[in-house]
Design brief:
This protein has helices at 10-22, 33-42, 59-68, 84-92, 105-119, 152-163, 171-179, 191-204; strands at residues 2-6, 26-30, 47-50, 53-54, 57-58, 74-79, 97-100, 126-129, 132-135, 140-143, 146-148, 169-170, 212-215, 219-222. The chain is of the alpha/beta class. The chain has a 5-stranded parallel β-sheet, with helices on both faces. The longest helix has 15 residues, at 105-119.
């Protein structure tokens, strides 16, 4: 998933990016309100980690802006402000969670994972799908206990399609989600189709894929 880290403490921002990138998120850092708003206006992000004390304004202003645009981005406020009024204000403005500094990276990971499950409408760490078991946290897929070896990109594509079940996901949405900044890739490249084709070959060895739909000239959909 695409994740925007809005944090002006350079060392903390890099620490968060390194840790979360290692757990599968596509991360980018913004250190100001202006840069964060520019990012959310020009690129797709699934989740935002939002500091409140920024050099050119308040993180609350960013939160107000993304909610005013009815953006579906999930927001975790990550701040040193522990006052109850700030927490209440953040949640009232539309934050999905509020985490006070200092915090353990493992706690942040757990809160992010809870949001990922909620975004997909799931309450469990595993999803059973026509005999396939998708372990969202461990990056593993099995079919009736038989392990299926997927590359990291293949797993990310499969997970994203499942989390957006019954919705058509365009090729550009997959590019944004798996590779990050859409400005860094070619929109007419067929590399997404190659990855999806390889994924389907591996899944198709175990069962037919009538539920894995290719929507011609648009993208893909998992029907559940």
């Amino acid at each position: 998933m695409n994740l925007l880290i809005v944090e002006d403490n350079k060392e903390l921002a890099i620490e968060l990016k390194d840790f979360l990138s290692s757990t599968g998120y596509v991360c980018k850092i913004s250190s100001t309100c202006k840069d964060a708003l520019d990012e959310t206006n020009s690129n797709h992000y699934d989740i935002m980690l939002l500091d409140l004390g920024l050099p050119d304004g308040s993180g609350f202003d960013i939160l107000k802006s993304v909610r005013k645009k009815q953006s579906k981005i999930a927001v975790i406020v990550v701040t040193a402000r522990a006052e109850l009024d700030d927490k209440i204000n953040g949640l009232h403005l539309g934050a999905d969670d509020y985490l006070t500094k200092p915090f353990a990276l493992t706690e942040l990971q757990a809160r992010l994972f809870a949001i990922v499950r909620r975004l997909g409408g799931f309450t469990q760490n595993e999803l059973d799908l026509y005999g396939f078991k998708l372990q969202l946290q461990d990056y593993k897929v099995t079919y009736k206990e038989i392990p299926i070896k997927l590359t990291k990109k293949e797993f990310d594509i499969f997970q994203y399609l499942v989390l957006n079940k019954n919705r058509v996901i365009t090729r550009m949405q997959l590019i944004e989600h798996i590779w990050g900044d859409i400005l860094e890739v070619s929109s007419d490249s067929n590399f997404i189709d190659v990855h999806v084709r390889n994924l389907r070959k591996k899944l198709d060895k175990h069962t037919t894929l009538e539920w894995f739909e290719t929507v011609r000239n648009v993208g893909y959909r998992i029907n559940i």
